[in-house]
Design brief:
- This protein is mainly alpha-helical.
- The protein contains 8 helices and no strands.
- α4 crosses α5 and α7 packs across α8.
- The longest helix has 30 residues.
- The termini are close together.
Length: 205
């Protein structure tokens, strides 16, 4: 039940985009078409699912104080190590997308390699090892299994936000929008309304 609670909260209530404002650059820039949004969302799901458990284990058994040697604290290297791990998997995703879907690769442009420093991906990696979660009772740190669930769910939440936003933006291209609101202004207004809509999920679990 706690795992289901964490999964649902991470997608709808503690959504990376709407609750923490992580990954806003990608959210605005790559959401002009549903196909591109799905592609980036899938890439983020894969990268987070692969890297969060690995970074969790590296932090626990290598970087944490006294993990390797008594009296040695390597936690100051966590940012560098986390980014290196993420970059490795992003490079793999980039090669696969370029090979099998050149059109999607061209659509994503610079934002595909920038997943390496996407604050949504890096933010989840840091939160998993530093934040105390309060689902299921008292505040506690996540274990390995819960970190995997959180990685998948938060990435799915990012993808859901991207696809919903992209779908609305595609429809907005077909309607008459006042000139002063065309482009980024109406996109930001839409993003704000979506964030308010997701607030309605508060109290769901």
């Amino acid at each position: 039940m706690e795992t289901l609670n964490l999964f649902v909260r991470s997608i709808f209530i503690d959504n990376m985009v709407f609750a923490f404002f992580f990954g806003m650059c990608s959210y605005i820039a790559v959401s002009k078409s549903v196909k591109t949004a799905i592609g980036l969302g899938a890439a983020v799901v894969f990268v987070q699912t692969m890297t969060i458990p690995l970074n969790y284990l590296l932090n626990k058994y290598v970087l944490a104080p006294n993990a390797l040697v008594e009296g040695v604290d390597l936690s100051f290297l966590s940012f560098i190590i986390f980014i290196a791990v993420i970059a490795s998997f992003v490079q793999l995703v980039e090669m696969v997308v370029e090979k099998f879907s050149p059109s999607l690769y061209a659509s994503l442009g610079i934002f595909l390699p920038l997943i390496t420093t996407n604050c949504a991906v890096l933010g989840v990696a840091i939160m998993v090892v530093t934040k105390e979660f309060t689902f299921g009772g008292e505040a506690h740190m996540l274990n390995l299994g819960q970190s995997v669930v959180y990685a998948v769910a938060s990435a799915l939440g990012f993808g859901v936000a991207m696809v919903l936003f992209a779908g609305i933006r595609e429809q907005l291209e077909l309607v008459s929008v006042p000139k002063v609101f065309k482009g980024i202004p109406i996109a930001l207004i839409t993003a704000g309304i979506l964030a308010l809509a997701f607030m309605g999920f508060s109290g769901l679990v």
